[in-house]
Design a protein that fits this description.
alpha/beta, seven-stranded parallel β-sheet, six-stranded parallel β-sheet
Length: about 550
Amino acid sequence: MNEAVTIRMTDTHVCLRVPFDLTQVCQSLRGRWNPEWKCWLWPKDKQAARRILDAFGPRAAQADGGDSLLALAGPDEILRPQDKVGIPDVLPGLKTKPWRHQRAAFSFARSKRGAMLAMGMGTGKSLFTVALLHDKRYSLILCPKAVMSVWPREFERHADYLADVVVLSGRSTKAKAGALKLSMDRAMVSGRQLVVVCNYDAAWREALADAMLAVPWDAVVLDESHKIKAPGGRMSRFCGELRKVAKQVFGLTGTPMPHSPLDIYAQYRAIDDRVFGRNFSRFRQSYAIMGGFGGKQVVGYKDADALRAKFLSIAFQAGRDVIELPEAVHQVVPVEIGPKARRVYTGLATAFYAELDAGEVTAANALVKLLRLQQVTGGHLKLDSGAVEQVDGAKQEALEDLLEGMGPEPCVVFCRFTSDIGAVKLACASLSLSCCELSGAANQLAEWQAGHHQVIAVQIQSGGAGVDFTRSRYCIYYSLGFSLGDYDQSLARIHRPGQQREVTYYHLIAKDTVDEQVYAALDARRDVVTSIMEGRKPKKAVKAA
């Protein structure tokens, strides 16, 4: 358990206490066991601190005393590729003036067989991608479904060359395969450049996959490439096959390793399989420390410097520090749920924590139970029959108060559940505000961006990546997801280039509920489910606005 890891600093040493099953990690870091103090010792220097953080990951950063270890490690001083490449004054194929880091990214990637563009949210990855594809006859862009409609607009905004941008959005996989073949036939006759855009979920399916693998792609772009991080996933394996028929592959993501260093393997298998090879077991053996039951659990990481060096061999990095944006402010709005919701919530929570104390809850079934608790804080209860019953209106009322105070300003409201989106629409109706939706069921983003609606209710998984909400300076989280990656993505949809005003994020947090734990974990950049299961107290208290 994470709480069993403790860190203490002396004048000369870093002292680390760990449970027995993590002793081999300490041994691999050449720590010295002190039997008197009953802890592992390293010299108190930056190198040791970074080795410990690389090996233990969140276990060390989130442990008691973890802040002192982070302070000792200091900021990452990796030399970024843009410091080592020549930077052109202009980029071919663009009618938009690029920033310096975009020109550097283009120069770094243009001649490589594959390149990882590990660039932070809002750094303008799409612009230099348009430049990278300016001389490509056949290009394929794979991306999340919510981003598909974005790419034609990006080419229209930035490209000074003519290309047919075809979005494969047919109702069936067979229809999409037919559309791809028709587009190829037309491109061969016309001689025009072709850019095909398809969502990840559709691309790997048999009829379409066969059609895609038959095309001699000059370039494949994996937008939000962390989506294919699971080595055994069908989409991930399909992208590995695409690598064999594509001349160049470019990965675009601000979070190349969202959960662990092992996340990079499948992405690099698709981008350039010469870096880490095509055998995941061998890769894991090289960089992970195995332990736990049967020696099949990853308990730490090793050879982080070697992994980082290989990662950087084809990776260009640029964080949000390369752009200047107005200030962003976060405010917590505490919500007191009503008596009925409190009774329902208390009953569910009592049962959950009793099972947790008894050791009957795993991370997998904990997620289901926590989701049910979280839905109650939004005022709804999912019954065993599958029907959803409204049990409270406190959050909806808090939302109405916020919207009323904003006046005519456009607003983005992020939601976790379909029932929450319904509550947003009811709140808007009560105030006579026009409301639209972006979710797995509806995509009215273009209408909102065009100014036809004041409020847009966004399902966080659908509106977190590749979407521009800079029309609004106000964002409300009606409910939060459990994914730190989704949360970071959603924040950057409003606070990004194009935003000219100070941004305010409002978080509706039901008092004395799981809402507080979820928000605290995200704010402290912890794994949400693990943090709740371990009963950790948040490092930062939730404060009222």
